[in-house]
Amino acid sequence: MITVDGAARSFGTLEALADVTLTVSDGEFVTLIGRSGCGKSTLLNMIAGLLPPTRGTITIDGTPVTSPRRDVAMVFQQPALLPWRSVEANVLLPAEIFGWNAAAEAAQLLEMTGLAEFRKRRPHELSGGMQQRVALCRALIQKPKVLLMDEPFSALDALTREELAVELQRIHLDLGTTIVFVTHSIQEAVLLADRVAVLSERPGRIREIVKIDIPRPRTFGYNAHLEAVASASARLHSLLH
Ligand SMILES: Nc1ncnc2c1ncn2[C@@H]1O[C@H](COP(=O)(O)OP(=O)(O)OP(=O)(O)O)[C@@H](O)[C@H]1O
Ligand SMILES: [Mg+2]
């Protein structure tokens, strides 16, 4: 369980985030949504242990977060792969750093994300969507309990983006990882989230938490829950404007 208790962060005189309190249960998928500059990345970086809060506390399973943990992985907007390494070697990087033998896991993850036949390729030989899949595999090789994702699909075209969101939902259902996911897309938030935390403009505060009660697996396009999707989307839309 992640608990964010009264967490705030300033940069000099700039108050980025003010007094955020939020709990994320094990296996839950929470999406953070809010205007540009409201502190979403700041909050995610604090949960990751990359940035200390100026006030308040953040704990994971009862332990205060003071530095990055092995069981917490992060995926960013850009895949940040090492260009001279193969796909497989990129995925294995965290295992190498921690001194684990994870060749079998890497093969399994590449299989799961449809990248098996590209394992010997270099990142520049892959499309943007495939590169982001590699970044996801590299995060999952740590077998994280918590996966933090900062607009992971925003640099992709709309269709690839939908495809990856559906894939991420499947991975979440399979692995039960706790996920905190930042997005600007209401559609993505409604597809993925158990709850959507809407942040107010800077300094960010939780404006409202919207529960998304739509059965899974959820799909884009025509489905049996279009009314529920429309009403959740409209609610989020009005909270952001
Ligand atoms: N390291 C830093 N030093 C100084 N100011 C920072 C730093 N990181 C963030 N900020 C400021 O804090 C505020 C919140 O930034 P943050 O990146 O968390 O916003 P965001 O919600 O992720 O925005 P976006 O949707 O554009 O990614 C911004 O005004 C930003 O300029
Ligand atoms: Mg950001």
TL;DR?
The protein is of the alpha/beta class. The chain is about 35% helix and about 25% strand.
> Strand pairing plus helix content: what structural class?
alpha/beta
CATH topology grouping of the largest domain: Rossmann fold
Distance between the termini: 31 Å
The string of secondary-structure elements, in order, is EEEHEEEHHHHEHEHEEH
Oligomerization: single chain
User: What radius of gyration results from the CA coordinates?
Assistant: 18 Å
Q: List how many beta strands DSSP finds.
A: 10
CATH superfamily placement of the largest domain:
P-loop containing nucleotide triphosphate hydrolases
List the bound ligands.
adenosine-5'-triphosphate, magnesium ion
Note the main sheet. Answer: 6 strands, mixed
> Helix fraction?
25-40%
CATH class of the largest domain: Alpha Beta
Work out the strand percent.
Answer: 15-25%
What is the typical, i.e. mean, pLDDT? 96
Question: What is the CATH architecture term of the largest domain?
Answer: 3-Layer(aba) Sandwich
Number of domains: 2
Shape: globular
- Biggest sheet, spatial arrangement of strands: 6-7-8-3-9-10
Instruction: Compute the number of helices.
Output: 8
Describe the SSE topology.
Elements: E1 2-11, E2 14-24, E3 29-33, H1 40-47, E4 55-60, E5 63-64, E6 72-75, H2 87-91, H3 93-98, H4 103-112, H5 128-140, E7 146-150, H6 158-175, E8 178-182, H7 186-192, E9 195-199, E10 206-211, H8 226-240
Parallel strand pairs: 3-8, 3-9, 6-7, 7-8
Antiparallel strand pairs: 1-2, 1-4, 4-5, 9-10
Helix pairs in contact: 7-8
The structure holds adenosine-5'-triphosphate (ATP) and magnesium ion.
